[in-house]
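Anyone opening a protein record will find just a pair of labelled lines. A complete record is shown below as an example.
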Amino acid sequence: MGHTSLDKIKALQKNPANVRNLCILAHVDHGKTTLADSLVASNGIISSRLAGKVREKDYLINLIDSPGHVDFSSEVSTAVRLCDGAIVIVDAVEGVCPQTQAVLRQAWLENIRPVLVINKIDRLIMELKLTSQEAYTHLQKILEQVNAVTGSLFTSKVLEDRAVKEERAEEDKEEGDIKPAECPGSEQVYDWSAGLEDSDDSQLYFSPDQGNVVFASAIDGWGFSIQQFAQIHSQRMGIRAEVLLKTLWGDFYLNAKAKKIMKGAHAKGKKPLFVQLVLDNIWSLYDAVVTRRDKEKIEKMMMSLGVKVMTRDSRHSDPKVLLSAICSQWLPVSQAVLFMVCDKLPSPLDMTSERIERLMSVGARRFHSLPLQTQELKTAFMQCSSDDTAPVIVFVSKMFMVDAKALPQNKQSEGVSGQMQGLPLKAKPEEEEEKETFVAFARVYSGVVRRGQKVFVMGPKYDPAQGLRMVRIVSACLPPVPHLACCTMDSLYLLMGRELEELEEVPSGNVLGIGGLEECVLKSATLSTSPALPPFIPLNFEATPIVRVAIEPKHPSEMPKLVRGMRLLNQADPCAEVLIQETGEHVLVTAGEVHLQRCLDDLRERFAKIEISASKPIIPFRETVIRPPKVDMVNEDLGKQQKVAVIHQVKESDTLHLDPSGLVTLTTPNRQATVGVRAIPLPEEVTLLLEGSADLIRTLEQAGQAQREGRTLDMSTWTLDALMVLKSRLEVLLQGRKWRNAVDRIWAFGPRRYGPNILLNSVEGYQRPSVWHCLEREKGEKEGGAKAEASAIRDFDNSVVSGFQLATLSGPMCEEPLMGVCFSVERWDMNFPTQRTHLDSVTEKDSNSLDASVSESPGEAVGQQGASGKAGGAGETPSQAEGAMAGASHGRLVDCYGPFSGQLIAAVKEACRHAFQAKPQRLMAAMYTCEIMATAEVLGRVYGVLGKREGRVLQEEMKEGTEMFIIKAVLPVAESFGFADEIRKRTSGLASPQLVFSHWEVISSDPSWVPTTEEEYLHFGEKADSANQALKYMNGVRRRKGLYVEEKIVEHGEKQRTLSKNK
């Protein structure tokens, strides 16, 4: 049979019950692509022996292959979002590997159902030389490993659901929805069950008797499920297939005398049914064909199996050719896998309500808090209807580039031009010849998509409630709805590998390519004809972009091509990021070394098509402070005086004063403001919490900004609840005398107003509004005096915040962002002179224009006095306010956002930097978690490479049933370049690492350390010129940024040697 025709595919698309959207997921080199090739090669072809039995239904299977390397896990995310099921492949020798766990987690997070293929069983026979009995035990252990991963995901979900239920019950109790009579004694009795007993996990685990496991060797072309052997042996043995199906996998054996299947094979030392009826046959075939090459036995086997092979295959010098020829007819892998897929994986009609609600609950919004019209769209998802009345819902998971010549509409014109070769044609411009276009990789969840149809494009921050108020139908001239655009789907394509087939319409439940969206969609997007649809939740990426390089063209004249190429790369790669730094450098950010190389190759060959040069990787660092160390570098106890002497290295001046306790006081050059700042290290848990809550803090800042500008920012109840939880968790973590009421005194977060650093208001007498003011549900009008004070210092208040933002954005060590530092402002005095000589130069026009802001000056002066501790704020008398107005009318007006504001920003920034330097300062390095699988022979070499690169081994365990060790370690990103290659070279390819960005870690060594105690002098010598890792990193960053590096280039240069002549 030939390939399936396009008309037949179009007919199959209209029946979503027989459509299967699935992807192939696995660790690197576990056989994904080989299996995918086998499935694609069998397109429309079914074994002639089974054609009549199994061809009751025709299925349309949309198969998406995905890469296995951790650097490309973003591609896995784009594939998983469009699918309803997944084939998870596990190597029979290596078992569950790090990326296997990652893909199972990604499938779980997207609520898609997986099936399992245990591949490379031939390696158990040929490489490990296991007997069939040993192989059975080994396969059982692999199944247990996979099920353990799935079970842990299930348990965490059940516990999370229970926590949410309890939270809702508490809310209902507070609102009075639950009457005491309904739950008598509820306060006295506590339900200790975790909810696992009641949860249904019958369909959760992989088990051959459930039909969701296939055993295969894709390279040799065979694969089977136990259903196939149950059918074969039920006819031969006269036992019902249902009985065999339940007993073929498990602790059952065949009692030959009684002709019964009995339990307890392991206890009685009997051969299990799976070994006797399945594995023994495969082992015998391999023994006859590959090991012994026994022609007579091979012929007998072929006759009993009813298999015929071509003469050239039987005479081939490589026995694997004959083996593949026999197995591909006896147990074709494509047949086993496709039957399992059609039988066990859900169709688009079977999408669960839980998955739909999760897709629509973007950001801080829950499904039940969405508008009613939005919630009604859930029905459209569930029905997967292709009616004209059904709303069109499409999700674009990625954009991929296609050569314009490969598009179907351009291929037809090529056929015509082929007949006109004799005619002279004008040479096309180079740009036109090499034109490429983007095609969107998408899936239809509801409705029918038609060519030329107009749809809404929902941005990630689109609010359906706002959209429903402003727009009803899709039109070219939309009202200005935030984060909503309109576009036309110019062309629709059926994706057939590298080939594209043009379609007029695509019904619901199918995967397709869409042309003409490159101007509207950057990486991924939600499309719909209904403005009630919210954007889908963002794709879940396992790998974080962390590796940066600066890129420039070899020839400066080609810069426009590079800019265009990087823009195209940014659109085509889901994980890559492109940005322009303050220095003007074009920077590419990727997930890892392999990803970086792939992106650079794509830039050279596809997108920019020019020669480019890339800098050495730009390694990100963070700067922080720690508590004063109690021991020196040789673990000797430090006295208090010694600690102070080592830490405080800030040079004092007439405007800068350092208190022994670490308080830095700095006065502006015009002597009109003095600020006192102290740096305090934040607890590690607080830093992690702030880093993980960046989006929430950004929302909080936006709400505060809107309130200051007199606007209102609509926030859902869920967002407010999440902010309340964040606040309460901060209060729990910030305990102790020095953190008393610290959470309510938070002035700002930084850098960029949402980073993991805090500015604390410890100024006596300055009662500014808390950053949490938007959490007040009932906002009453405050007293007039307090309101005046709040608005009074606001101008200069913003200057203090700006100084803090600048200080946290680039620290004093090497201009890298700060992390985990709290700056407490303990003094802020403002002293304006009563008269100013330069006021005379102000023109009458300027005076009139300034009159409008006089009304703010009384409060401003009140605030200034309050800040310096001279006034009582809201409770002052009218006479004090009048005096304040008089002072402000002379001193305040000229400086509003003028030179004084700039001086205050600079003063706060410098005070923060000096306060930072007054504490023990450290660098923080980005760390990878590294998982390496290696045999015992090369274990020492792996440890050697890790030790050389500042790695730290966390765990080492032997994989049960194999000779492989799994080493878990952490490795600085700065030391990771070339690490994978070195590991492979040193171990002759027997070990391969997987690196994933994990966390930031403080480097223990002090970059500015010099020996001070007698013990340190004895241990390190006077120069202490042993390698200081932190200093090496710091100097490397400073050198790259063009900052001053303190280092000796020449030492003991008394002698000079001339190398021009060697005599």
